[in-house]
Amino acid sequence: MRRQQRDNFKRMYTLILMTIGCSGLAIIIFxxxxxYSAMDANRRLTIAYQPVSNKPASEEAFIKYGExxxxxxxxxxxxNGEIKSVSNGMNCTNCxxxxxxxxxxxxxxxxxxxxxxxxxxxxxxxTIKERINECFQRSLNGTGLDSNDYELKAMAAYIISIGKxxxxxxTPYGTGLKSLPFLSRLANSEKGENVYRDQCAxxxxxxxxGKRDGSGMEWKYxxxxxxxxxxxxxxxxxxxxxxSFVKYNMPYGVTYENPVLTDEEAWDVAAFINSMPRPSKDxxxxxxxxxxxxxxxxxxxxxxxxxxxxxxxxxWLISLSY
Length: 322
Ligand code: HEC
Ligand code: HEC
Description:
By secondary structure, the protein is mostly helical. The chain has helices at 2-46, 59-71, 73-77, 97-100, 111-114, 128-137, 150-162, 189-199, 201-204, 239-249, 263-273, 308-313; strands spanning 117-119, 124-126, 211-212, 219-221.
């Protein structure tokens, strides 16, 4: 009898000990889980990644996320993008240098104050989100995003934040690109090929193919022509845009205050690169009012009687119209 009582007591005692032990273990596991998920949330925060369904933590985090997308577009939205696949593997910042903050590196400072705006290329009033999508469809040779898309809104928020405080309809110095004076001769793609070999090929590759970074997800040196480059509807396909970009930004590291290429070299290398193969695009609806076509836009019909070649390579006697 007493023995049975003792056994019962022992069993109860063991049970209590086990319960305490288990709860202790549970507490430890619970703490660890919380700790690691906090670490994971932290890691996400450092890459500013917000799952599509989540509401942003704050306006500031939303803008940071937009900046992350502009700087690492391909990682999230490229051919093997973590979120979607809507673009060709380039990052916005490959052209909008320093995330659109570099002076004359296709700088975003004028965007907030000037959009929505009427654009002659589309013949419509274009919002910031629509303008971003134009770059997706042309410069990134992709499809573009739905107007309610979370990532599109985040990129717009970031771009707007760069132009914060700029008065309506004004464009601060350093915005966009710095235009180059026209040449009095044709832009020469043979001379441009020499410029390319001497000053560009060591980074962009002997066939303009670029070089990927270690992850394989982004470009260390983006391509300048071929399948992975911008298409014929992109801004850089116009010689004046390309020459202006290159003169004041390339070889990499150059600024508008200390350019390396002469104006002639910039025009010639533009002629060479934009004579090489690249993806096509249906651009038949662009510039519906043909009298508004920029002089260096090489697809007819035209309001003048110059040929495609003359429009593409110059020499242009009349000023560009924007
Ligand atoms: C291959 C180069 C290239 C890439 C990549 C590119 N863009 Fe652009 N973008 C341009 C050019 C060229 C212009 C027109 C600049 C001009 O004519 O002043 C432009 C214009 C813009 C403008 C309008 C600027 C203004 O002041 O009116 C916005 C906004 C923009 N891009 C957003 C983006 C975003 C966002 C991405 C990435 C999803 C992107 N772009 C990727 C070349 C590029
Ligand atoms: C030292 C390496 C280097 C040299 C030399 C160089 N580039 Fe670049 N280039 C880059 C890098 C890096 C980027 C992308 C910048 C970024 O993502 O911040 C770039 C971007 C570009 C872009 C816009 C993105 C694209 O691929 O369409 C063009 C156009 C360009 N370079 C043209 C040239 C031309 C033309 C030359 C020669 C005159 C040249 N580059 C020389 C490193 C170089």
